[in-house]
Amino acid sequence: MAGQASSAADVQPSQRWIPWMLMVPGIVWLTVFFAIPMFSMGKLSLENGGFSNYRNAFSDYRELIPRTFGYALAATVICILLGYPLAYVIAMRGGRRKNLLLALVVLPFFTTYLIRAISWRILLGDRGPVTRVLHSLHIIGQNTSIVGTAPAVIGALSYNFLPFMVLPIYVSLEKIDRKLLEVGPDLYASGWRTFRKVTLPLSLPGLFAGSLLTFIPASGDFINVEFVGSDAQRMIGNVVANNFVKEQFRPGLSALSFVLMAIILLGVLLYARLLGTEELV
Amino acid sequence: MARHLSRRDLIVRGGALGVTGLSLPALLAACGGSETASTTTGPGTSVTTASDGSITVFNWPLYIENDDASTSPTLKAFTAATGTKVDYRPEVDGNDTFTAKYEPFLSKGEGIGGDIVVLTSYMAARYIAQGYVQAFDPTNFPNRANLIDSRTNPSWDPGNKFSVPYAIGQVGIAYFPDKVGGTITSLSDILDPKLKNRVSILDSLGDTVGSFMVDLGFNPEEGNIDEAKQAIAAIKKARDAGQFRKIVGNSYTDDLQTGEVWAALAWSGDIASLKNDVPDIEFVLPAKGALSFTDNMMIPVGAKNKAGAEGFMNFLYDPKNSGPLFEAISYVSPVKGASAFMTDAGKDNIFINPPVGAKLYEFPPVSAAAYEELSALFLEATQL
């Protein structure tokens, strides 16, 4: 009808604003909770010494920075090694039980993070069941403990972030058109070759997302070291968390936090380039 | 002794504290000390008499019977005798953390919602110098005369006008003889590489730096800053070598409880109570000398029931009240004649009555500037 057409034409200019209006809450959120805090932390990181705070962050934490990222990277790799096959089996072979299996992956995470970390401490502690069994089987020496070692921290990190790896990989595997997989054998490709040439590339977005969801929080984690680590395993998160209260360290620790962020960003960009997933994500 | 403390509770509680404890002050600080976060009931230092008949006491953990204010015979007896209720909060976790949290309010003369705070001497000295605390009214506190001589008239509070000790203890070494393979007599013994990653030290500057100073052959009471720096360097060296499993405050007992730490710089009373759960733990005062600490009661500015607080101190300074309390908590009572009200076991307990002739030093109050410098160095060496 004519009336409708004319009214649509009238509305058009204001409609152009609708997407922007819809973005307002997000923009306000990001401004208040991201941009402003980042700006004030940036300012703080330049107090008492300016850019030397950044130089000092690298020299003072010569061991801390590589250790933090080493642990985060190790946990990410372990999560991939454990999570990919798990996601694959659920997506490809789960059948009717898919939802149940996914629920089982997530179920332990209904318990709070803190309680799970404490539970690991109780399980792995020197007087805990795991250590006692390993002691009595003479797999580890009587005076060797599990808690307070790098493997314990990496293990706890891997445990805590495993679902964040499994779920995105599952989603991208689940999305794959099964007909593409049937083509592989038709063209005389082995199962492995089909996986390598078809399944794996198509699941890269999930792998990429899972790796980010694991690596980034693992890099900033401090709870796991607090409970299953010791002073020798401390990560950037521990140093910042324990000392940010103390005023004199705030500029240096702000600088350290930016260094942490910069390294994560660089790592992510590098990883994206390596996987060639820029256009996929 | 009737101490019973579930250490597992402490692990959980300690963990939760660790998380909330660091976020709250950080948030407060980040907001630039917002007034709304203050628990103060109003400014002013007016002396009001028991308006609502209660006092709030900020004290250290394990400083009351069974670490449980609700069943403490001392608090019950006090309330029965005076009608004043005690809101007892064992939330002083460290001199520095407590001060970092409340100094923004104290420095403005605002109350912190407490009538008594208990802090170690070097920090108490700072509170007095900064005017964060109020002088006692002697008429409300006649039992102050029962203070033992060695703690009367400290240089930083002549006449004990602002502070009296709550408890006295020593910093010694707690260890498991079977695990370390023998007896330990000095701090150097626990720096042996064979104990790598099995030792914990305290995150408290005076106690840890002082103990290392004694081990290096210095007298910490002289307050020589260069000697303190040497001690800090020694701590850093050992930490870089991976000697320390933990450098923490009150939570160090968790790792002794689980047996993961084999030797720890420890506060005497903690080990006395831990011994009930972990009988194979030993406690020794280093032969070269041990640090002794005194935690002092003071009335902060803005206290709403100053007279009630003085009444509480007066009650604690009666030897017949002090004896049983200190036998229960296993610290040294600062009250003359308190041991007359203890059992024979209590009288012989080295935690309560340290061996005669033990060399004990107290970390001295140093100037604010020197303390800040040492504190920064110590934190750098132990926490960063």
Q: Share of helix among residues of chain B? A: 25-40%
CATH level 1 class label of the largest domain in chain A: Mainly Alpha
Average predicted local confidence, pLDDT of chain A: 87
The number of strands of chain B is: 11
CATH architectural type of the largest domain in chain A: Orthogonal Bundle
Strand content of chain A: under 5%
- Beta-strand residue fraction of chain B: 15-25%
For this structure, the CATH topology of the largest domain in chain A is: MetI-like fold
Could you spell the SSE succession of chain B in H and E letters?
A: HEHEHEHEEHHEHHEHEHEEHHHEH
**Any idea what the radius of gyration of chain B is?**
20 Å
The strand count of chain A comes to 0
Helix content of chain A: over 70%
End-to-end CA span of chain B = 40 Å
The biggest sheet of chain B amounts to: 11 strands, mixed
Greatest contact pair? A-B, 29 and 29 residues
Return the structural class of chain B: alpha/beta
So, CATH architecture of the largest domain in chain B?
A: 3-Layer(aba) Sandwich
**Whole-number tally of structural domains of chain B:** 2
Q: State mean pLDDT of chain B (0 to 100 scale).
A: 84
Structural class of chain A: mainly alpha
User: C-alpha Rg of chain A, in Å?
Assistant: 24 Å
Structure description:
The complex is a heterodimer of chains A (281) and B (384). Chain A has helices at residues 2-15, 18-45, 52-60, 64-93, 98-106, 113-124, 129-136, 150-175, 178-186, 191-220, 223-228, 236-243, 250-275. Chain A has 281 residues and is an all-alpha fold. The two termini of chain A are 43 Å apart. Chain B is an alpha/beta fold and 384 residues long. Chain B has two domains: 25-168 and 294-355, D-Maltodextrin-Binding Protein, domain 2, CATH 3.40.190.10; 170-292, 3-Layer(aba) Sandwich (D-Maltodextrin-Binding Protein, domain 2). In chain B, strands 1, 2, 3, 4, 5, 6, 7, 8, 9, 10 and 11 form an eleven-stranded mixed sheet that branches. In chain B, α7 (205-215) crosses α8 (225-240) and α8 (225-240) packs parallel to α14 (368-382). Classes of the chains: A mainly alpha (281), B alpha/beta (384). Chains A and B meet through α6, α11 and α12 of A and α1, α3, β7 and α14 of B.
